[in-house]
């Protein structure tokens, strides 16, 4: 089928309850979205898959969940107060504001005027004050990346876990950026989630680990259902690198609006630990920007030769909202069924599907059938396979259509044969092939365990 259009996804997301415009009843707030009943399940499943791969399946990563409000000093010494900005231009005619680097032809995207101001830096951080007194001393920021708390908690994690290099600290959580031009649905928003790993390595081993993380992360994306040919590797040119990076590889994806960044994998060197550390002159740093007389802690670790070193950092950083958009894009399929009929199917990987099994009663006003459906649901919930939903529309065709569209891998139908035949059995309908098999209810638990373990 033709490439998925953004309008098709936006429409599906609203119609079926994946994603809504924030503050919708008041006309929305630009760059903010809310995840609905199915969106929250999909997003949670993506985060769980990331956490499992990055923390549980490895022996060299610990987790962290830090506060969003951040002490101003953290973002001063990280360099964000000085440098975390995008170039902004104003249109003198229509008063629109745009990112200078997003203009293709030097014209205002609103009105086409070429009467634009010179680009000037616009800091992307959201500022607030903490406590009842609103003054300079109480300024704090909403974090623009989850990474900084990982650096500032480095010593506490090392001391409490006795970790040696190489090891990583992983975190998933909200980040905030006052983007000049949020656009393309949930691709560029002002409040979003990141899943970030800061992987600490010996200086000199950083380039090897950078390459290794690139390959590990591509393999993970393919496991989430993205086709390898839809992922592009973009090596950031030196002049475009973030202020903290020595090198960066972007994994780009073929989104409906174009090929753009899905995940960045940066080599942050010793920049962050070095900038946040006290006694910097004792640390043999390769890069830092701010002299730090306020930090109370040396951020270094003992290596195998009993020498204190400031590790280099390799950082795979994924946008969770971009991950949602990518798996929706990849899964969205329109199938021609012949005779003028078609169906929309969301071909999500089983582990990402918001609902794993939909129990569909043949008749909703049959007490016997409904009692069996409730009993099955209670039993299936015990399997720990994820959400099992009981459909009560009473219209099988409609139920199949809805569950195809939201990506439910299996529909389980309870009919009169279920109750009358011995041994008792149900029908399982596969989302992708639409094939149906009858499975004895006594074998259902094992069947589903095997099916979802694959
Ligand atoms: N800690 C490194 C860092 O924050 P980044 O490239 O600025 O690096 C990492 O962001 C990832 O976060 C991006 O690859 C993207 O997936 C996601 N991201 C960044 N800005 C975003 C925005 N405004 N809306 C949605 N996702 C965003």
Keywords:
454 residues; alpha+beta; BirA Bifunctional Protein, domain 2; Rossmann fold; seven-stranded mixed sheet; five-stranded mixed sheet; binds glycyl-adenosine-5'-phosphate
Helix content: 25-40%
What structural category do the secondary elements indicate? alpha+beta
Q: Work out the helix count.
A: 13
- What global shape is seen? globular
Give a written overview of the molecule.
With 454 residues, the protein is α+β, with helices and mostly antiparallel strands. Among the domains are: 209 residues, BirA Bifunctional Protein, domain 2 (2-Layer Sandwich); 99 residues, 3-Layer(aba) Sandwich (Rossmann fold), CATH 3.40.50. The protein is built from 13 helices and 24 strands. The strands form 7 sheets. It has a 7-stranded mixed β-sheet with strand order 3-10-11-17-14-13-12. β20, α10 and β21 form a beta-alpha-beta unit. α2 crosses α9. The mean pLDDT is 95. The site of glycyl-adenosine-5'-phosphate (GAP) has 19 residues, from β11, β14, β17 and α9.
Detail the topology: elements first, then pairings.
Blueprint: H1 6-16, E1 19-21, E2 33-35, H2 37-56, E3 61-63, E4 69-71, H3 72-77, H4 80-83, E5 85-90, E6 97-99, E7 120-123, E8 127-129, E9 139-142, H5 147-152, H6 154-161, E10 167-176, E11 191-201, H7 206-223, E12 231-235, E13 247-255, E14 258-269, H8 271-275, E15 301-302, E16 308-309, E17 312-319, H9 320-331, E18 332-338, E19 341-346, E20 357-361, H10 367-381, E21 388-390, H11 396-406, E22 410-414, H12 416-420, E23 425-430, E24 436-440, H13 441-453
Parallel strand pairs: 3-10, 20-21, 20-22
Antiparallel strand pairs: 1-2, 4-9, 5-6, 5-7, 8-9, 10-11, 11-17, 12-13, 13-14, 14-17, 15-16, 18-19, 22-23, 23-24
The structure holds glycyl-adenosine-5'-phosphate (GAP).
